[in-house]
Amino acid sequence: MKRKIIAAFLAAILSMTAMPFFTVQTYAYSEGSTFEGKDCTDNENAAAAIDYLMNRYPHGKTFDSPGTCWGYAVKINDLLADSSRSSYYNGLRFTKTNFKNKCLRARAGTHIRFSHGSTFNGGYGHSVVLLEVDDNKVLWADNNYYAYNTVCYYQGTLNDFYKCYGQYGYINMVSKPVKYKIYDTPRTAAKALKAAGRIRLNWMKASAAERYQIYRSYAKDGEYKLIGEVENDIFQFTDDTVKKGKKAWYKIKAVKESGNKWSGAVSCRAN
Fold first, then answer.
1. What are the beta bridge partners of residue 193?
2. Which of 197, 235, 255, 264 is least enclosed by beta carbons within 10 angstroms?
3. Residue at 3 is within a domain
4. Do 168 and 198 have their domain in common?
5. Is the pLDDT at 122 greater than 80, yes or no?
6. Same domain for 172 and 215?
7. What is the DSSP letter of 93?
8. What is the pLDDT, as a whole number, of residue 18?
9. How many angstroms separate the Cα of 88 from the Cα of each of 79, 181, 193?
10. Which long-range contacts (CB under 8 A, 24 or more apart) does 116-124 make?
11. Strand 170-180's sheet: what is its strand order?
12. Residue 256 in 3-state DSSP?
C-alpha cells in the first residue's frame, strides 16, 4: 500500500514538472491558444491544413496515433510538407540566439527536436512542431508534454518558449518543409462546439475547387443531404441545424470543372 502511495506521489510530481511554466497571459491550458492557420502562414494550402489539424487533433485531447511527441510532429510535418530538409546537430546548445538562427521565419510544420544530451538520439528528447516564429512571438504545437499523449497549442514570446523547453539544453534536429503539399481531394475533420447543437467542420483545400458543398447524414451509409455551400477560399463551416445529442456524418464535395471530388465521411455527436 505504501509503495502505491509513493508511486502515485511521484507520478503527480513528474506530471507537474512536465507542465510549461510561463505567464497566464500567453497561455491558459483550459482554453488553449486562439490562433488560426492564417496567423501562422500566408500560404492558403498550409493555413487550411493547420485549421484542419487543430480540429482533427483538438487542444487537450489524446493523440490517437503511435509515437507520442515524435509521432505527432512527424504526422503534422507530413500533413503540411510536400518535402522537407532535415539538419542534425551535435553539441548545439539550446539558446535563444541559436534557436533564432535555425528557426526564425521557418515554414509552418517545422519539426524541432530537443535533447538533454549533446548528440542526436531519436529515442530520447522531445519534439515540437513550430507553426510561426518571428522576432516577437512563437506559435507552436506539442504532444506528450503537458500530460501523457495530450495535444496542446501554445503561443508566447521567445522567452516563453525558452522557459518552456530550456531544460533540454540542446537542439539536435530541425526538419523544415521545403514546400507545402497541394491536395486534390479535401480531408475533413469535425468537432462539437460547446454551444448545444453546433458542429464545426474544417477541411483541406482542394486544388482547382470552384466552391465547396457540405452534406450531412445521420447514418454513415444513409442519404447525405446538402446543408450548405461556401466559396473556394473558405475551408470551414458551422452546422447549427444538427439535432442535439445526435451523431451526424458529414462529407465535403469540392466542385471542380474537371470533376467533383468528395472527402471521406467523418462523424461527430452534437452536444
1. none
2. 264
3. no
4. no
5. no
6. no
7. B
8. 42
9. 22, 24, 41
10. 116/167, 116/168, 116/169, 116/170, 117/170, 118/90, 118/91, 118/170, 118/172, 119/90, 119/91, 119/172, 120/88, 120/89, 120/90, 120/172, 120/173, 121/172, 122/70
11. 81-88, 170-180, 110-115, 126-133, 138-143, 151-156
12. coil
Instruction: Verify that 94 and 220 share a domain, yes or no.
Output: no
Helices and strands (DSSP H and E) totals, the chain: 6, 14
The DSSP-derived string for 180-203 is E--BSS--EEEEE-SSTT-EEEEE
Q: Once rounded to an integer, what is the mean pLDDT over residues 77-96?
A: 95
For residues 248 and 136, membership in a common domain is answered with no
Smallest Cα–Cα separation from 240: which of 201, 267, 187, 211?
Answer: 201
Q: What is the pLDDT of residues 11-66, one digit of tens each?
A: 333 333 344 444 333 344 445 568 999 999 999 999 999 999 999 999 999 999 99
Which of 149, 180, 211 is the endpoint of a domain?
180
Domain count, the chain: 2
Residue 260 sits in a domain of what CATH number? Answer: 2.60.40.10
Query: CA 232 to CA 149: how far, in whole Å?
Result: 35
Q: How far apart are CA 32 and CA 30, in angstroms?
A: 6
Residue recorded with cell 510544420: 109
4 in any annotated domain: no
State which residues form the domain around 150. Answer: 25-180
Is 8 within a domain? no
Across residues 136-143, what is the average pLDDT?
95
Q: Are residues 127 and 255 in the same domain?
A: no
Based on the number of CB atoms within 10 Å of its own CB, is 127 exposed (0-12), middle (13-18) or buried (19 or more)? Answer: buried
- Residue at which a domain ends, from 122, 146, 180: 180
Is a pLDDT exceeding 50 seen at residue 271? Answer: yes
* C-beta of residue 136 within 8 angstroms of C-beta of residue 78: no
Q: Do 86 and 111 lie in a common domain?
A: yes
